[in-house]
Amino acid sequence: MRVKILLSLVLALLFKTIAAYSNGKIRSACESLKPEHGYSSSTDPPPYKLTVNSSKFSPGDQIQVTLSGATFFKGFLMEARDFGNPEGGPVGNFTVMDSAKSQLLKCGQGSAVSHTSAGKKMEIRVLWNAPENSPPVVSFLVTVVQHYNVYWERIPGPVISQSGVVPSLPNPTAVTDKGQATPSPLPPQPFSSEGCGKTKSCLRDPAGCVPAGGSPCFFLSFSVEGEAVLFELSGPADGYLSFALSMDKWMGNDDVYMCVRDGKRVDVSAAYLRGRTHPENIIQGALRDVAWSWSDGVMKCRFRRGIYTPQSPGRFLLNESYYLFMAHGPTNNGKIHRHDCQPLISTNQKVISGVPEDLTGSRSPEIMKFHGSLMLIAWMTSVSAGVIIARYFRDEWPDSALFGQTVWFQVHRALMIFTVSLTFLGFILPFVYRGGWSRRAGAHPYLGCVLMTLALLQPIMAICRPPPDSERRWMFNWLHLSVGTVAEVIAVLTMFLGIHQQALRLPEPGSTTVLAGSIVWGVAARLLLEFHSRGLLKIGTSNSTDQEAILSGQPGQSVRDDKGSQFRKVVLTVFLCGNIGFLSVLLYTINNM
Ligand SMILES: *[C@@H]1O[C@H](CO)[C@@H](O)[C@H](O)[C@H]1NC(C)=O
Ligand SMILES: *[C@@H]1O[C@H](CO)[C@@H](O)[C@H](O)[C@H]1NC(C)=O
Ligand SMILES: *[C@@H]1O[C@H](CO)[C@@H](O)[C@H](O)[C@H]1NC(C)=O
């Protein structure tokens, strides 16, 4: 069934100067109810309110509508609107009760009421005539001007429904996202993080940040007030801020609450997220006391909703436990776009109406942390060690064997099998997480696929290699070295792109520095060993002895180059210590994201 009943009564009082509109003939504001002058709507709570003498009506009925305030006002513009289509223009005609103070304005299909002069008024009474073809639910809206530069735009008034009409969930896809009664503005003070974990639950990014502070802070708090929960959401956002309740850590089947900026206004709405697509907007009576503000690039919104929502069965019950998602992103014409960074997801499930807790969360899904860690272990450390062993340690340990093979070969093979296995495991994870190919990850996934292919090619070539004395052996050696080197270069590029991916964005510039440091460290170690092996570094015995040892082809009998061997082992040890240091820093960073 459709809750297609929005009756809005809007009073817009528009003054370029008070003289321009002091006669109340402000038809230009009929549609928008916005005063088109240089000032903006007050952010203080409005001192005025609308009341009706009945919340039910039948076509042809007259409903008395009263605008009253704690203080005087000079101008106003009041309208009734279809609750299900509040931007559809005024609904029904009014009858003025005091033509000295109020007058009718013809506005589209219906009429609006405005002031006749700029005289101070305390109260206005008018009658609204329910039309024969009235929408089932109608809301009233009013814009009130106190002084020419002090006014409140679109103060939401009462919502009335036709007798016999049961307001219910609308067809979710058929409803515009402007279906919410206009909320009232919030005072400009930031929300308070005081009481987080004591009187209310909070989810903050960065952890423990203060919304009042100078640095960006995304802030969600909720506290139980009897049968309702008060939610406050704020953060630096130009487009939208939202949070969602979810049964799992995946997007989809979530209960979403959104604050979406539309010009100078912020629309607060609740929606249902079926999949990883646009939310389906649902109008419901479940959000109460909606208030918002948007200034200096910081958006704030606040609302209450019942723990139980019998009147809107689409909403989740707040006595159950959920993961909380917090997201922000751009909008285009009031339509939300995909978030430009991953949503923050609470570490644990939380009973919304439960005891206050200071919650923690992460923007990086666990599965992507595993991906990053596996790839870094494989391509920062394991592969480098494997290459160094194969290239510079072939003559080491000539007298010992490991499981019937030379030591260097066994170590090399073990490290490379380890590398390929980690790569394969790490390669699958993003596909599992995304449920397919990610079009927004740039070159990283393409390079990753090339790397995976090369990494698989290496063991296949190694298995098919010709025996050591074969004439074609040089081809294998050459291919194995080239493919390996290309793979290493691609791996470096992929890692640099990887640490900037949305789903695992490591802190900058620190992470790039650490990764670059580890690359330089590895290159330095290899250069040192390379120079040494070519005799350019005179450590250990003389060049000629090396030559002799190699030429003799009998390593066991050759003159042992003890000092050179010691040098290589020292370089390897120092390299490994530094490399593992760099790796640990990155793994630690990932683990703490
Ligand atoms: C509301 O006021 C109008 C006009 O005075 C009257 O006709 C109508 O019966 C009133 N409705 C109720 C429910 O009192
Ligand atoms: C009331 O509004 C309707 C359109 O909704 C218009 O056709 C009609 O003339 C108006 N009635 C009066 C009495 O102004
Ligand atoms: C939450 O409330 C509903 C309705 O009152 C009830 O059916 C459900 O068991 C409650 N859940 C928990 C976890 O208490």
Automatic annotation (TrEMBL):
Q: Which residues form the signal peptide?
A: 1-20
Q: Has the keyword Cytoplasm been applied to this entry? A: no
Query: What InterPro entries does the database record attribute to this sequence?
Result: Cyt_b561/ferric_Rdtase_TM, DOMON_domain, Ferric-chelate_Red/DefProt, Reeler_dom, Reeler_sf
Which Gene Ontology CC terms are recorded?
membrane
Question: Main localisation, per the record?
Answer: membrane
How does it sit in the bilayer? Multi-pass membrane protein
Which CDD domains has this protein been placed in?
Cyt_b561_FRRS1_like, DOMON_SDR_2_like, Reeler
Which parts of the chain span the membrane according to its record? 370-393, 414-433, 445-464, 476-499, 511-529, 570-590
Q: Where is the DOMON domain?
A: 216-329
Q: Name all Reelin domain ranges.
A: 11-178
Pfam families per record? DOMON (PF03351), Reeler (PF02014)
Q: Which cofactor does it need?
A: heme b
* Cytochrome b561 domain residues: 333-540
This chain's protein is named Ferric chelate reductase 1
